[in-house]
Write a structure and sequence with these properties.
By secondary structure, this protein is α/β, with parallel strands linked by helices. About 40% of the residues lie in helices and about 15% in strands. It has 11 helices and 13 strands. It has a 7-stranded parallel β-sheet, with helices on both faces. Strands 7-10 form a two-stranded parallel ribbon. The protein is globular and about 65 Å long. The two termini are about 30 Å apart.
């Protein structure tokens, strides 16, 4: 890090909401390791991170107490960077349809409204406000790749995020730069030794169950197409915004890999990794039901060169994640902590409901 960058960081506070979540915990570690900034982490869940220059606050930003917390920061808000990750997100697509729209509105929209109001009423002007939105705002779009101008969510999660984006426009003129990042689905290990809940780990669990019963693994139609990004790429993008961003105003960008991937290919990649690692006792057979209809549409947001992740494609992201997860699970089996793949998955997995 240059002396100029160090001097700039020493005067800056980085405020991260949703700091106990999947992205948040990893981002805190990265900011502390690569900058000299002080970090304030806010989350309604307990955060076990302890480090110099880090203060963690347990508070629900969807409640009035959240605004009070922001007001109490006082002049630390001046020239601060706020990274707003807080919100409700369920990685299991099937489960996400069961969440009440009211829950999405509370955790994604109301949380953002209160945060925006608190910043405007504080009397201090942050330099940067970054909002973690979602590519699900494009679920109903007909144009692919989809530019940021065409947002058409068809589910409560995407709708709540799009409404939260609209709230951020109130900050224009008060905050130097307001950046909305519409993230594609994220893969990769956030917490060490914790298996995230995502499509790759779902496939691993399905294959483990099929292996125990010695039956074929059903993966549906396999025809769904979506882009994925690795969590390391996401963290690097947030860091680049903190260090180098100089654009002003209200900016929306897609954060995605260049090429999407079919679900059938994800299943094949996961199966290859598990088989090569010797974690399956029986030969794997994938049962692809070509006539099974899916509620998940094709999704392909238009990539932006300035935010292009280091991963070359969604296939590359899936392969990275599959290798990571396989290594984690194989260690549990090889160290005799777990007798087989299925119990290793049960031990390592932790549901992630908050970003």
């Amino acid at each position: 890090m240059s002396n100029n960058q160090q001097g700039k960081d020493k005067e800056r506070t980085v405020i991260i909401t949703g700091s106990a979540g999947y992205i948040g915990k990893k981002l805190i570690q990265a900011v502390l390791a690569s900058t000299s900034a002080s970090v304030i982490g806010i989350d309604k869940m307990e955060n076990d991170c302890i480090a110099p220059r880090l203060r963690t606050i347990r508070s629900d930003l969807s409640l009035p107490e959240g605004e009070t917390i922001i007001h109490e920061m006082g002049d630390r808000l001046h020239d601060a960077a706020i990274i707003h990750l807080s919100g409700l997100f369920v990685k299991d697509v099937a489960l996400s349809w069961q969440i009440s729209p009211i829950e999405y509105e509370r955790d994604n929209l109301i949380t953002t409204q209160r945060l925006v109001n608190a910043v405007l009423q504080s009397g201090y002007r942050p330099a940067l406000f970054v909002f973690s939105s979602t590519a699900c705002v494009y679920d109903g779009a007909k144009i692919q790749p989809t530019p940021v101008e065409i947002a058409y969510p068809i589910a409560a999660y995407g709708e709540s995020k799009l409404m939260a984006e609209a709230e951020l426009k109130k900050l224009v003129g008060w905050v130097r730069s307001v950046v909305v990042l519409r993230l594609s689905r994220i893969l990769g290990i956030g917490d060490a030794d914790v298996l995230p809940q995502d499509i790759v780990s779902d496939f691993i669990e399905k294959m483990a169950l099929a292996d125990v019963a010695n039956v074929s693994c059903l993966i549906g139609s396999g025809s769904e197409v979506r882009p994925y990004i690795h969590i390391e790429d996401v963290i690097n993008i947030f860091l680049s915004l903190l260090k180098n961003w100089d654009q002003e105003g209200f900016i929306i960008r897609n954060v995605t890999s260049v090429n999407p991937i079919r679900v059938e290919q994800i299943g094949n990649i996961v199966g290859e990794n598990l088989t090569k690692a010797g974690l399956l006792q029986n030969k794997l057979h994938l049962d692809i039901r070509s006539r099974v209809k899916t509620r998940v549409p094709i999704l392909y947001p238009q990539p932006y060169q300035e935010f292009q992740p280091i991963s070359d494609s969604s296939e590359d992201v899936v392969r990275q994640a599959a290798r990571q997860y396989t290594i984690l699970l194989k260690k549990l089996v090889d160290d005799s902590i777990c007798p087989n793949l299925l119990t290793a998955v049960e031990r390592a997995r932790k549901p992630v409901l908050s970003l």
